[in-house]
Amino acid sequence: MNKIQNSSDQIQPYSYSSINKISKFFFTWCYPILNKGRVNPLQQTDLCLIAKEDSSYHSFLNYQNQIDYAKRSNSSLIGDIARAFQTILSAIQPYIANIGQTFFIYDKDEKKPSGSSMGQFTLLSVKIQGALQYRVMQKSLSFAMSLSKNYSFGELLTILQVDIIQASNYYIYLFSLWTCIPQLIVGGIIFYITLEENSIVPAIGAVVQVFFGLIFGHYYGVIQKKFMEAKDQRIQLVDESLLYAKQIKLNCLEDFFEKRVQEQRKIELKYLRYQVWMVIAIKLVMLIIMVLSWEIAFIVAKKINFSIISTMIQNYTSIVMTLDSLPTLFKNYQMSLNSMNRIEKFFKDKDIQIHKQQNENSIEFNNVKTGWKKQQNEDTIYDLDQSQTGMLQRQEDKTQFIVEISMKVLPGQFIAIVGSSGSGKSTILRSLLGETYVDTGNISYHGQISVASQEPWIINDSIKNNITYMDQFNQEKYKQVIECCCLQQDIDGFKYKDNTILIEKGDNLSGGQQKRINLARAVYKDADIYLFDDPLSALDIKVKYEIQQKCFEGYLKNKTRILFTNSLANLQNCDMIYIFEDGKMINSGTFAELKNIKQSQIIIKTQENRELLDKQFEEKIYQAPSHQLETQATLIQEEDRKQGNVETKIMKQIFEFQGKWLMVIIIIFYIGIVTTCQLYGNQKMADDSIPDDEYKELAIIYYPIIQVPVVIANIIIILYFLFRGLSTSEQIHVDVIKSLLKASFTKFYNTILIGRLINRLGKDITNIDYMFPNEIYNLIFNIISLLLPLIASIIYLNPVALPVLIVFFIILIVLTIIYYKSLREISRMEAISKSPIVSFYQQILRGILFVRSCLPHQEVIDRHLKNVDLDLGNQVNLNGLQQWYQSIAGTITNVFQTLLFIVCFYAEGSTPFMTYLILLQMQSVSLLLLLVAVSYGNILIYCISFERCLHLANQIPLEEDDLRDQIQEEQYKSNHLIELENCNFQYRPRTKQVLKQLSLQVDYAEKIGIVGRTGAGKSSIIMALTYMLECTDGKFFIEGQSVKQLRLQQLRQKFSVIPQEPLIFMGTLQQNLDPLNQFDIKEIESVAQICQLFKLDALKKKELQSEIQVFGQNLSVGEKQLITLGRCLLNKRSIVLVDEATANIDSKTEEMIKDIFEKHFTQSAMIMIAHKITTIMNCDKIIVLSDGCVTECDTPNNLLLNPNSEFKKIVDLIKQSEQL
What we know:
The protein has 1220 residues and is an alpha/beta fold. The protein contains 38 helices and 22 strands. The strands form 5 sheets. The chain has a 6-stranded mixed sheet, with helices on both faces. It has a 6-stranded mixed sheet with strand order 16-19-20-13-21-22, sandwiched between helices. The chain has a 4-stranded mixed sheet with strand order 1-5-2-3, with helices on one face. Strand 19 (1135-1139), helix 36 (1147-1160) and strand 20 (1165-1170) form a beta-alpha-beta unit. Helix 24 runs antiparallel to helix 25 (802-832), helix 24 runs antiparallel to helix 26 and helix 28 (857-906) packs across helix 30. It is elongated, with a radius of gyration of 36 Å. It starts with a helix and ends in a 5-residue tail after the last helix. This is ABC transporter family protein. Belongs to the ABC transporter superfamily. ABCC family. Conjugate transporter (TC 3.A.1.208) subfamily. Residues 381-607, 978-1212 form the ABC transporter domain. Pfam families: ABC_membrane (PF00664), ABC_tran (PF00005).
């Protein structure tokens, strides 16, 4: 995780707090950035840091000090007064403009008003984001996600990515809505003063528009809430698919997971289409009301002339701008309000239960009944919000399991809690950590807790930093922990020792190495109580014994230790052993006492004999690695960031997505209709030869003729771009998901952080969904609105005014080019700076059991805020640059308008009426220029979202669909089911071979056992057979055919795989057993009965329709493995690959799985990978691997005939055991 932090450790040249107030007011602090960006692409070190007083920490302190942070404490009184003054100026501008007619019509000398300034809310949004980021992380560290019905990974990631940003704009939208009220009131008063009775009809029309705007805002908010819920579910499914990438490939389920994600995406797009239709409908309604208001106003008016019409246009233009903004403001307000409510609901959700501290015992369970549901009634889940019925019912399958326990643990005791899969061991551990409901009794403990979870938590950082994470490094202590956790030999095997960077989830380690690093982290923590959740499973027996002696009984001998395990073997030094079954304690006592109980005596003796035999086999056969592994110091690549202009091919793709020449035709059509109608209307309106009595008839006839085509053109273009945007977004999402699920596991997933991908599939897809097409429409609309007065000025104004226009445009174009160069690079950096936030938060959530119990919460929050402040600083730079441009462009346009006014005053155009009308329309040029610049800048930002998503769709390394060209280069036909001859395999090009000179023959229905120490290359064989590794040399045949003649899907469909980490996903039990829906319900039920799935507490109530939570959180490891086994039974494939399927489960479940293997896989060839020789004693052939090479391989009979075979010596020992 240090990798994530490095991005914010760069040396920054200056901080925003060091900028003086004058520089902030005039945005002169942007000039150094612009100057650097003009010459070279900007880098992160060229930007200023966020000011200390605006940082997330200080913003949270302000937030915390408020009774209700709805108070706008971050907005100053001066700012409010300035905003109010701007509102009044904007409202009375039509009145001033009405007086200004006298310049050209009545020849009176008055002054023309200047343009208004712009409000600034950037820092308010930044501060709110900072405060919410702090609070969300703080809440996550105390939030009982395992008990929540409403929140899982997907919802929390969406809150972090989307809701916080939308909520940060809540007060901006709310304040903007409130300013509309005085604008409309003052505007209405001025409207009446200037037009008197002519103002009544437009005023009624304005009221109707406000009414429809309110209705639109309400229903848009309802639909947007459902849209966000659908997005939550999609992000959850995407997260699940990416984290299970390896297992998905092994099981050949890429199409299934792609279909799951895309189906959820369709639901999300359905609500997005509803939103689009609502936007189009409200736009049409607003335009129709406006046209009707004008037409009725002309009909009922007593007198109409140019003076009255120009005043009505100016007045109504001012009011209609406010009315036009209302639907958008209502929409944005509802979106931000929904996000605020979602965040508030999360803040109010249940926290973990903090148990009381007591002084006598280290731990005490006093008549406790605990489980996953508060015991009220069978169908009610505690503290639920029933409004979420559309969401997956996450908790209903966990609700039936209850553990009853009474136990006292004294300081310094070593306690073992033993039980089979589903007996309640993990429930007891989680209840102690406050993550279950305690219905009766109470739990108390004394001291600091450290915990090693059953599933290892590996972060993207070095081995050393994984072990010492967020703890002070002590060299001597570190060496002791490495030694007692038996990691030294593994570390020595890496080229970069303990500086080797581990990838997310530790996929560049073996399962045993992951377990021991996870254990070492827990041991390194200074604590009073150590909780170990089955940390020794999947380890070599010799290593297991050493850890037991050196760590549990040595290094930690004076600490309170609780070991949760499924085996009674080697527990003779425990002070007390508790045996659980079905949530109840069935036996307890010391090891000696339990040995006197007949049933326990048999179990103990059997398990001890097996472990002794396995230990002897390891000592004789396993060899230490002879060379260092070529694991790189770091595999994780920096996030790709383009520089300079967006690539031409990206722009071409965007052009194609928008319809290519059809888009051009639509735009030309729109421009032609609007320009023709408006210029024709201007000409008719400013005709000074028309007497007043004919003017009214002219207005009644020509107004609808001019406006109806404009309304139709507006609707057509917005309809085109919004729906084209939806189809574009849908296609890009399809391409990205397809590409990700086909990406190479070793070349891509081993070099990327999942958080980066989630960031692109969240924020960037959102930009493409709606923001981009809406911004294109806005840009075209604003450009047309800008061109109309400019074209009219060229046609009708005096030629003396043309140099003013030309100089103005040259200055503005040069300024805009400089601005866009910097804007583009800052936008890229701002997009990239969000990835570390998501990655860090995601990894913290995955290790929440350890993080919550063992890490200093403030340190976790501070590291999170370090990433957040870097992003917020980039936002300040980005928004500061935008506001600089708006300020400087506004000043230049105001100067231009003044000069144009002076020129027109002394050099008249074609007619006084036309000159005034053009100057009247030119008043909006300043605002329109800013809107065009902002729209184009936003489009550049959204093009970067296209760039980032299209990179995933087109440029990431994919698995070869064809293993090789379909060339019959090998005429040899193998008679074996599988045959490998001198094959070498590697993870990536230019890396060391992990399997060397591998030769193997497997016949039909043959059972092969493969053993070897941790890191010997056992699991690599499964990856090699399924072609996830690259075969550089040798011949590889399957079913008599060279793999070079097979497609990848054809090859993998020949295998059923039972991996060490089972593939269990969110859905029903039936979906997990039969994801492709290939089998009859009776077949599925039969398999479920064979695997005894209906006897499991989580599944017995609803059987095949039982809901399984994300990552199978409501199942034990053994239960997950049984479901995976059931999936293999259904598929009935000729080859079954088993990767240490029994490593993490109890002996009872292990025996059941072995029995299923013997009875139901007799016709299948099996390659079984195991740590322990006892698990594969009945195999037809035994292979011993060491350091990627085969050291011994033959049938058991041949090995037994060889007097020098180490295998023969072990079998002789086995024969002496009555238990085997």
